[in-house]
Amino acid sequence: MDIALFSPSSLFANDDDSSSGEENTETQQSFVERKHQFPGMELIVREFSFHQLNANLLWPGTFAFAEWLVQNRPLIEGRHCIELGSGTGALAIFLRRLCNLDITTSDYNDQEIEENIAYNCMVNGIAPALPHIKHTWGDSFPSRDPDWDLIIASDILLYVKQYPNLIKTLSFLLTSYKPKENESQTRPKDEPTGQSFSLPRPSFLMSWRRRIGKEDESLFFTGCEDAGLEVKHLGSRVYCIKPRETTTNGDQIVNS
Length: 256
What we know:
Helices cover 27% and strands 23% of the residues. By secondary structure, it is α/β, with parallel strands linked by helices. Strand 11 (229-235) and strand 12 (238-243) form a beta hairpin. Helix 2 runs parallel beside helix 3 and helix 5 packs parallel to helix 6. The protein is globular.
């Protein structure tokens, strides 16, 4: 594996020339550039050696989710997609190269993350860089009329205190989508039953592989259900979350 170290001062400009040497050391960043094997291709990914917002590395869920999406490729083809918690942007870059997916990256309101994703796009032959939205979960979304019919994410349930903010952002994106005429629903396989299911527009697909307590994990899914969202496990620790169906008089349908 080829590894190169970087300390790009352009990403971390310091306007205060009087800062102490200790303060300068704390703000300087270094990067590690690695080659990662994704299904059918190799990507070069520059990762932060450390990042205070945990956007520095690729986690196991990224690769597992990539495999699952390749196996269920029809469900993402032709979709208008946004990824939450993009980190390095590797999964979005993979999906753009895999099937020319119309995808936007997003992560915490942090310039360093955005510029690193743009760099990773460049070194993997994607120009211009993928569209990117700086958004802190729970804050007002930059677009008041979002139009994504598919939201994806992997390994984003690390911080339990952020679950309410994440659910707030998810609920806004899912309930703000306006269906188009003659939209088709793709039908990937539901692994536990072996039966295909309808993937609605809009929906949130999430892969979760990092280990946390079962109680903490259930807090997120319970919070989604309390917010009027429906959660379905598709197998391989991939989950589909969508707005709960309602009746003609506006009552929510509760699935038993």
